[in-house]
């Protein structure tokens, strides 16, 4: 990692009243159609063939306009590990990656286990320039806190060892947790995937299986996915889709779950094609270069600003359709977590949008990254298809490699618990 000079460009932006996005190919109803979009008071006001006027105009000729990406699995490290990332730096990385909403995990320092912890995180997140929501954590001893909290994505249960010390193994404790919290996301690997599914079937949960990475796991999930007792949603990361064990050159390529074989990777792509896979989320897990180069490197890789370019590159290479990308990174996350007013370009919906240039070719470079950790497993990789403008609540927060610092909002979840 040689290039360390800073070429990040951040200015304080101003909140716009109205915005016109003209002549773009707009993604509506599973297809592209040329329309103009009028944005007013942070909402999509009009989608029209007619000419529109606003205080600011963006010419999107030759570009595609998508609903903003919803990254349903990130670690922004705040509170407690702001030296790795914080809500501002992490959200700048999000904006640069076309992500307009992220859902943040609870394995912080301290972990988010009480209503008060959650409240403190809510305050810290106010500096985020993209929208955000939170998972709640559990150590098995905080079950009484469950009823005190509201508006979280799900409870997060760690059934395998990973960053943070929230692992729970005891069957009766797990059962009690599954009984008391309806919507659960798990870090479960191998046999623990089956264990989580059985607990969810028994307790009729909505179960989110994070970062599924192996063929065995996929085959197992396929057997259970259509059960009538519980809903199962399956997530995969870009690193498991685009890297294998062979790429594991050093500790910078180590994460939980670890990279797998080509056979496993093929199974993940097949699961995308046959609909077993529901979502792609980054598991953005920044650690500093010093930590990664240490004797005891922590697990995890950053990824929030490279997911969309990787996926658009895959669209250009005919490995995915644009429809797949929208379904897996926008539509499904919005629907499966019940995120209000997001995930579609539709009148009345929040003006969270990303304008992408499918022909733009750029090489991922550590020196251009907005993440505080300043490295990427994809450093040096040339990709075709990049986000060029990101709009959050009607405000341009990223345009032509420039960040505008405008605060965003916490999302609202339709579902209760
Ligand atoms: C994550 C982290 O660093 O917080 N690490 C990882 O390797 N994925 C934790 C996690 O998602 O398991
Ligand atoms: Zn380098
Ligand atoms: Zn995990
Ligand atoms: Zn994670």
SSE layout and pairing:
Layout: E1 9-11, E2 18-28, E3 31-40, E4 43-48, E5 56-59, E6 64-67, E7 69-74, H1 87-96, E8 99-104, H2 115-124, E9 131-134, E10 136-137, E11 155-158, H3 171-180, E12 183-187, H4 191-203, E13 206-209, H5 215-224, E14 231-236, H6 238-242, H7 262-273, E15 279-280, H8 289-292, H9 307-316, H10 322-336, E16 353-363, E17 382-392, E18 395-399, E19 402-404
Parallel strand pairs: 1-19, 2-5, 2-6, 7-8, 8-9, 10-11, 11-12, 12-13, 13-14, 14-15
Antiparallel strand pairs: 2-3, 3-4, 6-16, 16-17, 17-18, 18-19
Bound molecules: N-carbamoyl-L-aspartate (NCD) and zinc ion (3 copies).
Characterise the protein shown here.
The protein has 417 residues and is α/β, with parallel strands linked by helices. It is 24% helix and 26% strand. The protein has 10 helices and 19 strands. The strands form 3 sheets. Strands 1, 2, 3, 4, 5, 6, 16, 17, 18 and 19 form a 10-stranded mixed β-sheet that branches. Strands 10-11-12-13-14-15 form a 6-stranded parallel β-sheet. Helix 4 (191-203) packs parallel to helix 5. Residues 1-6 have low confidence and may be disordered. It binds N-carbamoyl-L-aspartate and zinc ion (ZN) (3 copies).
User: Number of helical runs?
Assistant: 10
The dominant shape is globular
Q: Which value, in Å, is the CA radius of gyration?
A: 20 Å
Note poorly predicted spans: 1-6
**In sequence order, what are the helices and strands, one letter per element?**
EEEEEEEHEHEEEHEHEHEHHEHHHEEEE
**Helix/strand class:** alpha/beta
- Largest sheet at a glance? 10 strands, mixed
The CATH architecture of the domain at 68-336 can be named as: Alpha-Beta Barrel
CATH class of the domain at 68-336: Alpha Beta
- Distance separating the two termini: 44 Å
Share in helix:
10-25%
Could you say what the CATH topology of the domain at 68-336 is called? TIM Barrel
């Amino acid at each position: 990692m040689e290039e360390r000079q800073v070429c990040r460009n951040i200015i304080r932006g101003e909140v716009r009243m109205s915005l016109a996005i003209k002549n773009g190919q707009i993604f509506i109803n599973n297809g592209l159609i040329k329309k103009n979009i009028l944005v007013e008071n942070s909402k999509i006001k009009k989608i029209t063939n007619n000419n529109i006027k606003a205080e600011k105009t963006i010419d999107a000729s030759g570009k595609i306009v998508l609903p903003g990406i919803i990254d349903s699995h990130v670690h922004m490290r705040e509170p407690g590990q702001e030296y790795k990332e914080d809500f501002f730096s992490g959200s700048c990385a999000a904006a640069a990656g076309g992500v307009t909403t992220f859902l943040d995990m609870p394995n912080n320092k301290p972990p988010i286990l009480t209503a008060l912890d959650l409240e403190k995180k809510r305050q810290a997140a106010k500096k985020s320039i993209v929208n955000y929501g939170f998972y709640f954590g559990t150590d098995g001893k905080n079950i009484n806190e469950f009823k005190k909290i509201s508006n979280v994505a799900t409870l997060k249960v760690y059934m395998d060892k990973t960053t943070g010390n929230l692992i729970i193994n005891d069957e009766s404790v797990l059962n009690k947790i599954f009984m008391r919290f309806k919507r659960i996301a798990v870090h479960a690997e191998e046999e623990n995937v089956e264990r989580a599914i059985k607990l969810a079937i028994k307790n009729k949960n909505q179960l989110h299986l994070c970062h599924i990475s192996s063929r065995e796991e996929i085959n197992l999930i396929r057997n259970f996915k259509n059960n009538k007792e519980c809903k199962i949603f399956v997530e995969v990361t870009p690193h498991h889709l685009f890297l294998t064990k062979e790429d594991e050159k050093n500790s910078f390529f180590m994460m939980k779950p670890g990279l797998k074989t080509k056979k496993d990777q093929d199974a993940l792509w097949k699961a995308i094609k046959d609909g077993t896979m529901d979502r792609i989320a980054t598991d953005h897990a920044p650690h500093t270069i010093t930590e990664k180069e240490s004797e005891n490197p922590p697990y995890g890789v950053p990824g929030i600003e490279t997911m969309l370019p990787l996926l658009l590159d895959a669209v250009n290479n005919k490995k995915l359709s644009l429809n797949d990308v929208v379904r897996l990174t926008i539509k499904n996350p919005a629907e499966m977590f019940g995120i209000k007013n997001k995930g579609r370009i539709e009148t009345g919906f929040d003006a969270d949008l990303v304008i992408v240039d499918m022909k733009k070719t750029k090489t991922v470079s550590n020196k251009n990254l907005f993440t505080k950790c300043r490295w990427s497993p994809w450093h040096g990789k040339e990709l075709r298809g990049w986000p060029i403008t990101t709009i959050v609540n009607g405000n341009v927060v990223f345009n032509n490699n420039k960040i505008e610092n405008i605060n965003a909002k916490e999302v609202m979840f339709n579902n209760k618990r």
